[in-house]
Design brief:
By secondary structure, the chain is an alpha+beta fold. The chain folds into three domains: 100 residues, no CATH class; 301 residues, no CATH class; 142 residues, 2-Layer Sandwich (60s Ribosomal Protein L30, Chain: A), CATH 3.30.1330. The protein is built from 23 helices and eleven strands. It has a five-stranded mixed β-sheet with strand order 7-4-8-9-10. The protein has a two-stranded antiparallel ribbon with strand order 1-2. The chain is globular. Bound molecules: iron/sulfur cluster (SF4). Iron/sulfur cluster (SF4) binds next to helix 21.
């Protein structure tokens, strides 16, 4: 219940009198404070009668406040007053608004979030990110969270989906044409060619060609076996005709050129030198695929047609709903599926995330595949965290261990969940783990809601910027994952939408500019530890956001997504999953 304005004025008056020695609000006499109590994570925050405080010196008061864990004075806005206004009136008004927020436990609705730079940055209309930003977000949760083999959504899951798609198209050709077929050929270009070897792209592409799908493949039985037997030939059924395919049919082609997308590939069905069927594809990040002439599938209109976080906040305020409720309403309206069906899908993702952490933590310390000879460490970090007495260290250790576990599973090529990508596949499972029975012990329903809120953050980043490291560097992978994690925590803790937006903003902001430079093209260094840092930053983003007055945050989520898009566009291509810069060249492997 919000306090009456008179109580607020009196409370503010007492504070200001105690701090500055005068009461700037006319008619508000200092009286013992009888304001409301606020329940915080640290206990009950109860404003005290100020008669004692009034006679304290400032140093005494500071030390007294330091002793009271969890108590904080309201943050006053000391920024410059708007031109033409009176400075003192501005400060009093600012302090008043802040006191209302602190005492009332909610933000003064008269205050709107004001980005520090209110002038929108002019973007080149030819930028892909600008073209993509037309219209409401239409992405669905089952397109976004995908289960598939690691180590990379764009270099493993995407290529496997592409070749599986091509196989499906090929078998629809008339049998007379299929009878002429002699071979299937796949050409990899750009980043797929530059770093595909380290990502197992050729095995993923071959698996799709011979009929395996990412969500149902057994990576150990199929992909690991392909690696162990590189010369093995696999039969591919084309109606009544059978041809052979092998890893030799996956060709690492040009790494540099004017490709439509940094992750371009072509698939061909050949009859000798003659092409029976050819299709150009793009693995556009997060396991999403497109092809030449692609048009998005027709979907129903969303109940909440949002394009930005500002739209989302406005809808949630208008209808008094959470971000998760908004997301669920859109899932049902766009897809035509029921809430129960969507929840069943979310439960599968929760189960898969739990499994990846559990398997990764239980795996004995081993050497990961590839030339780096990197040792795994999730299990060791977990054991050490469990033995830790200090709760803060234990918490950070467990989140880090869970993220390492998920990421090491990804590096092993085992099944992971794109959230939003394979390289960042340790972040969201670790956040989920920290909210689950090992941590905050929230209910499964809260985990579902958290996944929905996290997805909304990913959708917006995909809509306006990119999820592909080949387009935007690691800020687009771990940065987005960390922001999704922050939103998930906020939603699972029932934080208001603006706090969730701010938490995600903070987590994304502090990954801006982060480059992608996987050593030797393997998703191991810096990727594995980077997931742990991303998951911890999810919590940092949430903890900062929940402890500040939401409207006081000077950077809004939409501005930060725009910064992500601009930084992605301007980032040197050496740092976009090519292994031509940064750690990939500074680290000497011996
Ligand atoms: S450096 Fe980041 S973006 Fe690049 S492969 Fe690793 S996790 Fe993915």
């Amino acid at each position: 219940m919000s306090p009456r304005v008179a109580d607020v004025e009196r409370a503010l008056s007492n504070w200001l009198r105690a701090i500055w020695g005068f009461t700037p609000i006319p008619g508000a006499d200092a009286q013992p404070m009888v304001g409301p109590t606020l329940t915080t994570d640290f206990g009950v925050l109860r404003p005290r009668a100020t008669t004692g405080l009034r006679h304290m010196r400032r140093e005494e008061m500071d030390s007294e406040l330091r002793d009271r864990e969890g108590f904080s004075l309201p943050a006053l806005d000391y920024s410059e007053p708007p031109a033409g206004s009176d400075r003192r009136a501005f400060m009093v008004r600012s302090a008043m608004a802040t006191a209302i927020a602190v005492l009332g436990g909610q933000v003064n609705p008269l205050l709107a979030q004001t980005p520090a730079n209110a002038q929108p940055v002019k973007l080149d209309p030819n930028l892909n990110v600008v073209k993509q930003s037309k219209g409401p977000v239409m992405t669905l949760v089952d397109e976004f969270y995908k289960v598939g083999p690691g180590p990379s959504s764009s270099h493993t899951i995407g290529p496997m989906r592409i070749t599986y798609d091509f196989y499906q198209r090929a078998i629809k050709l008339p049998q007379a044409q299929l009878d002429q077929a002699t071979a299937l050929k796949v050409h990899l270009y750009g980043s797929l060619s530059a770093t595909g070897k380290g990502h197992g792209t050729e095995r993923a592409a071959l698996a799709g060609l011979i009929g395996y799908e990412p969500a149902t493949i057994d990576p150990v039985a199929v992909l690991d076996k392909m690696q162990a037997e590189p010369d093995k030939v696999y039969p591919v059924k084309l109606g009544t005709k059978t041809i052979n395919a092998s890893l030799k049919d996956i060709i690492y082609d040009e790494t540099k050129g004017d490709f439509p997308h940094a992750n371009t590939m072509t698939a061909k069905l050949m009859a000798g030198d003659k092409v029976l069927l050819e299709q150009e594809y793009y693995s556009v990040g997060g396991g999403f695929i497109e092809w030449k002439g692609y048009t998005p599938p027709k979907k129903n209109p969303p109940k909440y047609p949002y394009e930005t976080m500002a739209d989302i906040i406005a809808f949630t305020k208008r209808d008094n709903i959470s971000i998760a409720q908004l997301a669920m309403a859109n899932e049902t309206s766009i897809s035509g599926r029921s809430e129960a069906e969507i929840n069943a899908f979310l439960d599968k993702i929760i189960g898969a995330m739990r499994a990846t952490v559990k398997t990764g933590l239980a795996a004995p310390t081993s050497t990961l595949p590839g030339p780096i000879k990197l040792k795994t460490k999730a299990g060791d970090v977990y054991k050490s965290a469990m033995a830790e007495q200090l709760l803060a260290r234990k918490g950070i250790g467990l989140v880090s261990a869970a993220a390492l576990a998920g990421s090491e599973e990804n590096a092993r090529g085992h099944l992971v969940i794109t959230a939003p990508t394979g390289g960042s596949a340790g972040v969201m499972p670790a956040v989920l783990y920290s909210l689950d029975s090992a941590g905050a012990k929230v209910s499964d329903q809260k985990l579902r809601e958290g996944l929905l809120a996290g997805a909304v953050i990913g959708y917006l980043c995909k809509h306006h910027a990119t999820l592909a490291a080949a387009e935007g560097g690691c800020q687009a992978e771990i940065g987005v994952a960390s922001a999704m994690g922050a939103a998930m925590i906020g939603q699972a803790m029932d934080a208001p939408p603006q706090v969730i937006a701010n938490a995600a903003e903070g987590a994304l902001e502090h990954h801006l500019g982060m480059t992608c430079d996987p050593v030797a093209g393997f998703v191991q260094i810096p990727c594995i530890e980077r997931c742990a840092f991303g998951a911890v930053k999810s919590w940092t983003g949430y903890l900062i956001a929940k402890n500040e007055i939401p409207a006081n945050r000077r950077v809004d989520f939409d501005s930060t997504v725009q910064a992500l898009a601009i930084t992605a566009k301007e980032m040197n291509s050496k740092y976009k999953e090519t292994s031509e810069g940064g750690l990939a060249v500074s680290l000497t492997l011996c």
